[in-house]
Write a structure and sequence with these properties.
Elements: H1 3-9, E1 12-17, E2 30-32, E3 35-36, H2 37-47, E4 51-56, E5 65-68, H3 74-85, E6 89-93, H4 101-108, E7 115-119, E8 129-132, H5 137-144, H6 151-157, E9 161-165, H7 180-191
Parallel strand pairs: 1-4, 1-6, 4-5, 7-9
Antiparallel strand pairs: 2-3, 6-8, 7-8
Helix pairs in contact: 3-5, 5-6
């Protein structure tokens, strides 16, 4: 077995699935040849030899470990998964079909830290293409006590976060499906032999 596969085998990718107002049930919409959006996300990560867990707000059949997420929002969802698994995990959105192996490899170099999060020059974070360790739980719980908690502020509370330059990463890795236009673009990218 190749060394990089051993490294990937040691990591878990948790795919978060929530309810979308803009494109309801987008994760289970057929995209191509009876393949749903969630199937592309899961298969892509499995092909990288990552252990994949789908953490979803609603039930549907999927070809990997599946856990129902009873949390009411993303921050409690991440806290819940970190507490349940009691280990660091990569967190990805269930609507991100083109996550890139080389970008995960960049993040893997820093998994001894509390979190690894891509950040754009303007300060915008990519919190659903990130690594989180249980060490960050207390900062997330503190954030929940505030008046207007946000995932971005929760991450910035912690002084042990590695921020990778998002501009230096392949932009397709952050592509996510939020609208019918995005779904069509995904189909076009797949047709052009992505």
């Amino acid at each position: 077995m190749k060394k990089e596969n051993i490294l990937f085998d040691e990591h878990i990718a948790v795919v978060l699935v929530g309810n979308s107002k803009r494109l309801p049930n987008k994760h289970i919409k057929a995209v191509k040849e009876n393949m749903r959006l969630i199937d592309f996300v899961v298969n892509n990560l499995k092909n990288m030899k990552l252990e994949v867990i789908v953490y979803s707000k609603y039930e549907f059949p999927v070809s990997t470990r599946f856990i129902i997420d009873k949390s009411n929002w993303i921050l409690p969802s991440i806290i819940s998964i970190l507490k349940n698994l009691n280990r660091g995990v990569f967190i990805f959105g269930g609507d991100m079909p083109f996550i890139q192996r080389k970008e995960i490899e960049k993040m893997m170099k820093y998994t001894s830290h509390s979190a690894v999060v891509p950040m754009w020059r303007n300060g915008y974070l990519e919190p659903l293409h990130a690594y989180y360790s249980p060490k960050i739980i207390s900062f997330f719980e503190e954030e929940l006590m505030g008046k207007k908690p946000s995932l971005h502020s929760a991450i910035k509370r912690c002084n042990d976060v590695i921020y990778l330059k998002a501009e230096k990463m392949n932009p397709l890795t952050f592509f996510n499906v939020n609208t019918l236009e995005d779904l069509n673009l995904m189909q076009n990218l797949l047709s052009s032999n992505f």
